[in-house]
Amino acid sequence: MEETVYSADSQLLYPRHFVPYISSDLRISPSVAWSLFLRNLRVQYRQTWLGYFWLLLPPLATTLTWVYLNSANILYEFATRIRIPVIIAPLRLIVRWILN
To answer: Which residues have CB under 8 Å from 44's CB, separation 6+?
Structure first.
C-alpha cells in the first residue's frame, strides 16, 4: 500500500516531481469527465425518453426556424460569409447547457 503524504508546500516548487504527477492526472481526467457528464445527463433527465427528447427539441426547433428564415431570404448576410443559423445553433446549445 502506497503512503500519501499531504503538505502545505507548493508542488510547483519541485517541477521534477510535479510534471509526472500532473501528466498521470491528465491521462485519467477525460474518462472521469465523460463518466460525470453521462451521470449528470441521466440524473437530470431521469432516464426517460421524453427528457432526452426535451433536451434536443428546443435547439432543433430554433435551428429549423433560423434555417427557414434564411431560406425565405428574411435574414441577410452582413459582414461575414457565414450563414446566421450556423452561428446561432451552436450558441443556443452552449447557452442551454450553461443555464441548466
So the answer is: 51, 100
